[in-house]
Specification:
mainly alpha, 3-stranded antiparallel β-sheet
Length: 232
């Protein structure tokens, strides 16, 4: 399933969501300019679970640089499809969550979602030195928050039923619920595998981010009726 847009227009200008999209894009452009130095750049600034665990547990490596990668890794991407996919989801669902929370709390929520996602990925891949990059953990938090706050908002979705494609208007709880269920099934199936064995996808980061987003909105009691239907 590919969400195309939601029928839940923003009530405020989503400054933070737009700024996050711009920041991620600019960092990716910088990555492209690095050429052969990109691999080392990813090793330094990507999240490597084993390095983080060793830094926290026995200070085998400097603590602050390892902790910093929890945040820096959120703004790195492994290719155009990785970047575009993440930014597309953030564009569709981020504005309404920013509406519900307010600009500054939304930014803090986004970062906290990313931290939670990184923590669960690290706990499920303690021995991995493979650098993990991408905003998907933080964006999964946005998806979880949206699913709780706007469960009835209609999401226009492209459903590939090869060789045909169908466009449907499903409520957010169906679209995002199916997304989460798929992640959970893949996550359970990946237990015991290396990060490379999951195709380099940080599935448990997605699960952790989504669960955090849902729980945070539930604790805040931010269930909101969608705005009058219309194009986003």
């Amino acid at each position: 399933m590919i969400p195309l847009r939601d029928e839940n227009p923003s009530l405020t200008v989503p400054f933070v969501t737009r700024a996050l999209i711009v920041a991620n894009t600019l960092v990716f452009v910088y990555e492209l300019l690095l050429g052969p130095d990109l691999r080392e750049f990813m090793n330094v600034w990507g999240l490597r679970p084993e390095r983080l665990v060793m830094s926290v547990s026995d200070h085998a490596s400097p603590l602050l640089p390892a902790l910093a990668t929890v945040f820096t890794s959120m703004f790195l991407h492994g290719g155009w499809s990785h970047l575009i996919g993440n930014m597309w989801y953030l564009y569709i669902f981020g504005d309404n969550v920013e509406d519900a929370l307010g600009h500054v709390p939304y930014l803090l929520f986004y970062l906290a979602s990313g931290v939670t996602a990184a923590a669960l990925h690290t706990l499920t891949h303690v021995g991995s030195m493979l650098p993990t990059v991408g905003a998907s953990g933080a964006i999964a938090g946005v998806l979880g928050a949206y699913a709780f706050a706007y469960p009835g908002a209609r999401v226009v979705t492209l459903v590939p039923l090869f060789p045909f494609f169908q466009i449907v208007r499903w409520p957010a709880w169906v679209v995002l619920g199916l997304w989460f269920v798929l992640q959970f099934i893949l996550g359970v199936g990946s237990l015991g595998q290396s990060a490379a064995g999951t195709g380099g996808i940080a599935i448990w980061a997605h699960i952790g981010g989504f669960a955090f987003g849902w729980a945070a909105m539930a604790l805040l009691g931010r269930r909101t009726a969608p705005a009058v239907a219309g194009a986003e």
